Amino acid sequence: MNIETNDSAGRTEEVFEEMIPGMETPLGKILARNNLALVVTGSAACVRGIYSKVRNMGKLDQLFLCPVDKEVYAAGKQSDPIRHCLEEAVHTEGIEGVVIYASCLDVLTQTDFDGIIQKVENPMQIPIETLLRGPLVKRYQRPAAVIDRILERMPENRESFLPHHRSALPPLYPDFNNIAAAFRSWDRFLYLVSTGGCGSACCDTEESGADTRFRKTRLDDLQVTLGCEEVLELSIGSDCVSEGGSSAFLIGTMLTSVVGTDEEQLCESLRERGISADFLFADGFRTGPEGPAQDILQMSRMLLQPVNTDENRINILGHNPMAIGRREKIAHGIEHMEWRDFTGYFFGDGTQEEVSRASSAKLNWVVSTEGLPLARYMEEQFGIPYLAGIPIGKQAMIRWRKDVNVYMDRDDEELPERNPAAPSEEQIPILILGEPLLGISLEKAFQEEFGQFRIQRAVYAPAVSLQRFYRENLGEDTPIFFRDESDLRKLLKKQSLVVADPLYKNFIEEYAPDSRLLEIPDPGVSGMEFVDMEYQIFGKKGAAYMGKAFE
User: Fold this and answer.
1) Which of 413, 438, 300, 320 is nearest to 361 (CA)?
2) Are strands 214-218 and 11-14 parallel, antiparallel or unpaired?
3) What angle do CA 50, 53, 58 make, to 5 degrees?
4) Which residue, 213, 426, 480, 507, could crosslink 458 as a Cys pair with Cβ 3.0–4.6 Å?
5) Which string of b and e fits 429-464 if b means at least 16 CB within 10 Å?
6) Phi and psi dihedrals of 547, rounded to 5?
7) Model confidence pLDDT, tens digit, residues 107-124
């Protein structure tokens, strides 16, 4: 019996695709109609991938996001959030038709879109259609042909009338993207174990022209249904060997979580082929630093053993570009280490043997919240102390250099006395949004360099598990959480200065029109879109950049 499969199924391919699809793609054809709403359903990963494409097309006015939690899908209760999102779309001025952009997860769980549409409060009888998309449907239907038939049933476009809708806050980047970013510097191949579409939720964190060994698998519905471990073993094994690789990390996605792929057996089969393989857990529902922190800790427990101390070694932990952007932003800290004959090592760089020597360090320097679990583990297991935070401004630099010298048993450097600024007579309300450990450092800089003390720190954390991660690792320094646009609007009220990613600019202009914005990218929210802009977060240059807000 011959079974037809998708031509591209059962192989590996590049993760990163062109992020601006042509207007002849299904997505482009929908958005070319200014009177149509695009309702995107699925996991955080599915929704984030489409959001990035639509943002790059400049069509966010037509986008309605409906990320659904894993537990909701598991309980079969996704109909309620999808219905609510559809009702928001049909009640938006200017919208005359709605297309539901369903995900692989909806295909797997057989979401009843017909039943959901029947229950939508739709007094204007605006037409609603469903487009099943992704690798799991391509074997038996072509979305390009289906969308043409759908658009034939939709009202004609009205070029002169645009919908009055601004898309809500985007989902954060999913765990598998952040895990890949954290492990890109390790001397291993990376494989995203997916049906193929998950790559759109990833952003390329490598410097331009850098070598990359990050690929994804592609499967169709039949391979997923009949069991995909053998296909994955063959495709990953063949690709790794043909490219001269001998070790690999397999990164999970919604596929491995929902379908129940046997990761242990898959890795064992690859080891029998001579490939050292380890599985990094991800499910496409978690966001932020939770996933990479867990997987780095898992690998560290496997690799690190007690060794003799290297008296000059300092590890840098939590340097994920999805947390702090380019390494160059903290490079001056490495220069200070070298001036004292210390050597800074970015944890994870190099071979597995080189990674295993991290337990020889005299000190760990943690530059983002993601690095705190590993720092505490290494302190407990190997007695290695750690410093947390990025020194911003002269006062913080003096303290940081003093602390480094003390921990390295080299407290012989003549440093100026600290002289923090006195409290300013004009205290202005300041709101800091972004990576929590960086937020703490910025707050200290506002206090010590500018004498400002009316400061709030907040972080975008829509998921309960992400909030729990921050509480467990930051304790009393945990910032305020905002989960959606409503929470953000409340935080922005009566602020004079907002320190935030440029992606928040439209929200700030609407809800805090009299405030100033100091732009500091938060890659967890905006990816690598703004990381190459001119900004500073380290030392005196960091304080000088902050000072622009007071000019």
Assistant:
1) 300
2) antiparallel
3) 120
4) 480
5) bbbbbbbbbbbbbbbbbbbbbbebeebbbbbbbbbe
6) -65, -20
7) 888 899 999 999 999 999
Q: Give bridge partners of residue 366 from the DSSP assignment.
A: 317, 388
Q: Are 449 and 422 in contact (CB under 8 A)?
A: no
Tens of pLDDT, residue by residue over 377-391, are 999 999 999 999 999
CA distance 540 to 228: 54
Under the banding of pLDDT at 50, 70 and 90, the label for residue 160 is low
Q: Give the integer Cα–Cα distance in Å for 412 and 402.
A: 9
Give the residue carrying structure tokens 């929704």: 47
Measured between alpha carbons, how far is residue 98 from residues 103, 117, 218, 307, 498 in Å?
16, 11, 29, 62, 36
Q: What is the pLDDT of residues 123-134, one digit of tens each?
A: 999 999 999 876
In eight-state DSSP terms, residue 257 is I
Give SS3 for 424. coil
pTM for the model stands at 0.92
Neighbours of 254 (CB within 10 A): 29
Per residue, what are the HEC states of 261-325? Answer: CCHHHHHHHHHHCCCEEEEECCCCCCECCHHHHHHHHHHHHHHCCCCCCCCCEEEEECCCHHHHC
Could you give the CA distance from residue 500 to residue 521 in angstroms, rounded to a whole number?
7
For residue 317, report the phi and psi dihedrals to the nearest 5 degrees. Answer: -110, 150
- How many residues in the chain? 551
